[in-house]
Write a structure and sequence with these properties.
Layout (H helix, E strand, L loop, with lengths): L9 E2 L9 H10 L18 H18 L5 E6 L2 H13 L5 E6 L2 H11 L3 E7 L23 E4 L1 E2 L4 E2 L11 E4 L16 E5 L10 E6 H8 L11 H6 L9 H16 L2 H21 L5 E2 L10 E5 L3 H13 L2 E2 L10 E4 L6 H18 L1
Parallel strand pairs: 1-13, 3-4, 3-5, 5-8, 8-9
Antiparallel strand pairs: 2-10, 6-7, 9-10, 11-12, 12-14
Helix pairs in contact: 1-7, 2-7, 3-4, 8-10
Bound molecules: 4'-deoxy-4'-aminopyridoxal-5'-phosphate.
The site of 4'-deoxy-4'-aminopyridoxal-5'-phosphate has 11 residues, from helix 3.
Length: 368
C-alpha cells in the first residue's frame, strides 16, 4: 500500500518530527532490500562499500547544501546534541582558558551546566530573567578577550526565539547549537568554528548528530588524544571518517534521503522561502485580534517553533484537546513553559499551517 493512502495527522512535534513523505515512501519501498544489494539498509555492514557510499553521499550533499568550506570536517556522531554539551568543552576548552556562553534558552542553560563541569565558563549575557522570551543583543555581551570560544544556540526550541544574525565574535571561534534550525535556511559555515545539531528535527530521524568543525579547532582534539575518552574526541571521528565505531547506519541513510529532498526543494534558499511564508501565516493569525498571544519578542521570533498562549490555562487545555482531535497533533508547549508550541520544520506541509489557522479562527469564534 502506498504511504499516501495511509492517514497522516499534521504533526507539530518539536522533535523527533515530521519527515518528508517522499523520503518515508523511499524508505518503505527499499526497506526489505536496497536495490542491487539484496539486503536491508539496517542489515548491511557499516564497513561495506554500500554503506560507505551512503555515508559519502550524505556528506557530499551536506557540503553542497551548507556550502561547507574544505577546511571543515563533517562528522556523524551519536549521543544527541546533549553529548555535544560535554564534548565541546572537553575538546575545545583548555585549562586556564575561559569559554563564553550566551544563556538564551533552556538548552543553552543545559550546555552551560555541562561546560562548568569541564572548565571555566563566563556567561556573556542571559535573558533568563525574561523567561528567555528574547535574545541578548550584541551590546549586552560581556565577552572574554581571547576566549576559547563563544557558544550560542541559534534557535531556542522551547521558547521559540531564533537569531536572525549571529553574534560578532572577532577572532574568537563561534560554536553554534543549531539543533532546531539546521538547514532550515542558508547558514554561513565560515562564520563558525563548530556547528552541531541533533538530526531529529529538520534533517532526519533521531540517533544521529551532525558536527561541522574547522580544522584548526580539531588540532585541540589531537592534543587531547592521550587524555580524552576516545569516543569523545572529535579528531578520532574525523580521522576515521565517522567510522571509528558503528555509526547509526539507518539514521545516516535516512538523513541522506532528506538531504537529497532538500536539494530538490531548491536547497536552503528555497527552503527558507517556504519556511518564512509558513511562519508568517501563523504569526499573522496569532497577532490578528489579541485572542492569542505570542510569547517571543517580535524581533526574535523563531520560524521553526512558534510559541503562543491563550487567556487561561483552562482555555489552553481545551485548545490542545480539540486541536488534537482535529488531527493537529503535538501543539502542547514544552512542559517547562506551558502554552502552545507549533513546530513547523522543513518537512511540515503548508496545508498543515492553513489547517491550524482555520482551527484557530474557529476556536476563537467559539471561545472568544
Ligand atoms: N539543543 C537544542 C536547541 C534542542 O532543541 C535539543 C533537543 N530538543 C537539544 C539541544 C538536545 O538534543 P538531544 O535530545 O538530541 O540530546
Amino acid at each position: 500500500m502506498s504511504m499516501t493512502a495511509v492517514h497522516r495527522v499534521f504533526n507539530f512535534a518539536a522533535g523527533p518530527a515530521v519527515l518528508p513523505v517522499p523520503v518515508l515512501e523511499e524508505i518503505q519501498r527499499d526497506l526489505i532490500a536496497l536495490p542491487g544489494v539484496g539486503m536491508s539498509v539496517i542489515e548491511i555492514s557499516h564497513r561495506s562499500k554500500t554503506f560507505e557510499a551512503i555515508l559519502a553521499q550524505a556528506e557530499s550533499d551536506i557540503r553542497t547544501l551548507g556550502g561547507v568550506p574544505a577546511n571543515y570536517k563533517v562528522l556523524f556522531l551519536q549521543g544527541g546534541a546533549s553529548t555535544q554539551f560535554s564534548m565541546v568543552p572537553m575538546n575545545l576548552l583548555d585549562a586556564g582558558a575561559t569559554a563564553d556562553y550566551i544563556d538564551c534558552g533552556s538548552w543553552a542553560e543545559k550546555a552551560i551546566k555541562e561546560a562548568r563541569k569541564v572548565g571555566t565558563v563566563n556567561v556573556a549575557a542571559s535573558t533568563k530573567d525574561a523567561n528567555y522570551s528574547r535574545l541578548p543583543r550584541q551590546s549586552e555581551l560581556r565577552l572574554t578577550p581571547g576566549a576559547a570560544y563563544l557558544h550560542v544556540t541559534s534557535n531556542n526550541t522551547i521558547e521559540g526565539t531564533e537569531y536572525k544574525s549571529l553574534p560578532e565574535t572577532g577572532s574568537v571561534p563561534l560554536v553554534n547549537d543549531t539543533s532546531s534550525d539546521m538547514f532550515s535556511r542558508p547558514i554561513d559555515v565560515a562564520r563558525h568554528g563548530l556547528i552541531y545539531a541533533g538530526a531529529q528535527k529538520n534533517m532526519g530521524p533521531a540517533g544521529l548528530t551532525i558536527v561541522i568543525v574547522r580544522d584548526d579547532l580539531l588540532q585541540r582534539s589531537v592534543a587531547r588524544k592521550a587524555t580524552l575518552p576516545t569516543m569523545l574526541n572529535y579528531a578520532v571521528h574525523a580521522e576515521n571518517n565517522s567510522l571509528y565505531n558503528t555509526p547509526s547506519t539507518f539514521a545516516v541513510y535516512a538523513l541522506g534521503l532528506v538531504m537529497k529532498w532538500l536539494l530538490q526543494q531548491g536547497g536552503l534558499a528555497g527552503m527558507a522561502t517556504v519556511n518564512e511564508r509558513k511562519a508568517a501565516k501563523l504569526y499573522a493569525e496569532i497577532d490578528r485580534t489579541g485572542f492569542y498571544r505570542g510569547t517571543a519578542a517580535r524581533d526574535d521570533r523563531s520560524l521553526m517553533n512558534i510559541t503562543f498562549r491563550l487567556a487561561s490555562e483552562e482555555l489552553e487545555k481545551r485548545f490542545v484537546k480539540e486541536s488534537t482531535a482535529a488531527g493537529l497533533d503535538g501543539l502542547k508547549g514544552h512542559r517547562s513553559v506551558g502554552g502552545m508550541r507549533a513546530s513547523i520544520y522543513n518537512a511540515f506541509p503548508e496545508e498543515g499551517i492553513d489547517a491550524l489557522v482555520a482551527f484557530m479562527r474557529d476556536f476563537e469564534q467559539k471561545n472568544g
